[in-house]
Amino acid sequence: MKTDRVDWGDLQKYQPQVFCDDCIHFDAPQKHCTMGYAPLHTRSEQMAQYELTGEMAFCRFCEIN
Questions:
Q1: Spatial contact of 17 and 61, defined as CB atoms under 8 Å apart
Q2: Would you say residue 63 lies in a domain?
Q3: Is the Cα torsion angle 32, 34, 37, 41 positive or negative in sign?
Q4: How many CA atoms lie within 13 Å of 22's alpha carbon, on the beta-carbon side?
Q5: Residue 34 CA, distance from chain mean position
Q6: Does residue 40 sit within a domain?
Q7: Structural domain of residue 32, as residue ranges?
Q8: What total number of domains does the chain contain?
Q9: What is the pLDDT of residues 26-65, one digit of tens each?
Q10: Which of 14, 18, 39, 45 measures 20 to 30 Å from 28, CA to CA?
Q11: Each residue of 31-50: b (16+ CB within 10 Å) or e?
Q12: Residue 29 belongs to a domain
C-alpha cells in the first residue's frame, strides 16, 4: 500500500479514521481483514510508522464502523 505524507496539525485537527481498527472489514477477534488484505495498518502500527517517517498508508476500501 502506498504511503502519503501527513501534516501533524492535520492529523490532530481531523483525527482521520483510516486504520484497520476503524474499518468494518477488520475482524478484530481474528485480527484479519475480511477483504483479504494484510491488516498491517492498525492504529498503533500506523502511528509508529508515522513517528518514524511522517507518512501513513490509506486503504481505499476502509469503511468506518
A1: no
A2: no
A3: negative
A4: 15
A5: 15
A6: yes
A7: 3-9+17-57
A8: 1
A9: 998 988 888 888 877 889 999 999 999 999 988 877 777 6
A10: 14
A11: eebeeebebebbeeebeebb
A12: yes
